[in-house]
Amino acid sequence: METILLLAYAESDGSLAKSAREALHAARTLNKALAGSSFFVGLVGENVQAAADSIAACPATKYFGVAGADFGQPRYTSDAAASEAICKAAQATIVVAPATSRWARVLPGVAQRLGGRADTHVTGVIEAGGQPMINRWYYRQRMEATQTRTQRPWIILIDPGSQTACECGSGSAKVEAVAINLPDACRRTTVMGIREPKADAQTIRPDAQLLFVTGAGWTKKQADGQAHVPEAEKLIRDFLRLSRASLGSSKSLVDLGGEGQAVLSFLSHLNQIGQTGSTPRHPKGLSTCCHGEEPHTVGWRFINERRAISLDPNCGWARGKADVLYVADAFKVMAKVNELLAAKK
Ligand SMILES: Cc1cc2nc3c(=O)[nH]c(=O)nc-3n(C[C@H](O)[C@H](O)[C@H](O)COP(=O)(O)OP(=O)(O)OC[C@H]3O[C@@H](n4cnc5c(N)ncnc54)[C@H](O)[C@@H]3O)c2cc1C
């Protein structure tokens, strides 16, 4: 009989992030599929009661918590100690957790301490023949595998964006406090603050409905024999502001900056999608001025509806991978789109 534990942390405002609710959905999927399994929740944070209450209507039968000032900030030593203690208190055999940067760097170490195993970047959980199974992708999202493990505890880190977020209602949860005696050696690291771009300079928005991808064409010479980078920059910025889309880029466009050529000032390598970039998940995608290649389209696999604007009607990428291709000048199309979006606002 498996004991399934959702392991999450409360945000600084006491809430549970969407990624935690997605992991909760996966944990509950396993719990429903595995006959006779138990389902518990474990929470870490400065204060965990509000987070527990926010999901109190879920079918978990026990809540474990490690709370206190020492556990509000992300820090390997305190997070690992808290996670280890909760896993032991719950006697969990399967631990499901969100694959956020905070948990992804801590939980494989916790698996080691517990004599278990961890799998990262999991995109699905299923049951087959009475056994829990996971799905994950290999070779930069080219091959999908279904696998299982006999080793317990088994820690499963769920990739954010891969699940529906559990919308179970709130209520009043009874949280069993797990006591920890945190040695001073575990308190040496302190988070001094968070530096982040201003809201309007933050172009990567994982929760956006649309991924807007820019290619090197935005910086190329246009029909008048000139490049129009400042106009391109303004069109793209205006579109992002009006649509709240997330910004992706082709490798070529990101690389141009490193080669000293004129490039869009707000792009960094973090925007690059594809084989050597990231694999964002969004309901829709619009690529502009991209020719792209197979490695690039790998980054598009998790976009449900894909459209492209390119001047080149023979572009193999656009023909083969986009659901709708507009053979048009992206400068003109995006200017019109921005005009329509502004009028709608
Ligand atoms: C090992 C390896 C890994 C790679 N990994 C990645 C990766 O992770 N991500 C990635 O993106 N690439 C990757 N690449 C590079 C990839 O193969 C392509 O070279 C790259 O994606 C092309 O970028 P692009 O489409 O922006 O530029 P280009 O190929 O230069 O295409 C520009 C396009 O813009 C169009 N255009 C120009 N002006 C306009 C206009 N006014 N309106 C509309 N369209 C216009 C042109 O018709 C052209 O199609 C990788 C390559 C290798 C070898």
Description of the molecule:
About 30% of the residues lie in helices and about 25% in strands. The protein is an alpha/beta fold. The protein has a 9-stranded mixed beta sheet, with helices on both faces. A 5-stranded parallel beta sheet has the order 11-10-12-13-14. Helix 3 packs across helix 5 and helix 6 runs parallel beside helix 10. The radius of gyration is 23 Å and the shape is elongated. The protein starts with a strand and ends with a helix. Bound molecules: flavin-adenine dinucleotide. The site of flavin-adenine dinucleotide has 30 residues, from helix 7, helix 8, strand 13 and helix 10. Flavin-adenine dinucleotide binds next to helix 7, helix 8, strand 13 and helix 10.
Provide a concise account of the structure shown:
With 345 residues, the protein is of the alpha/beta class.
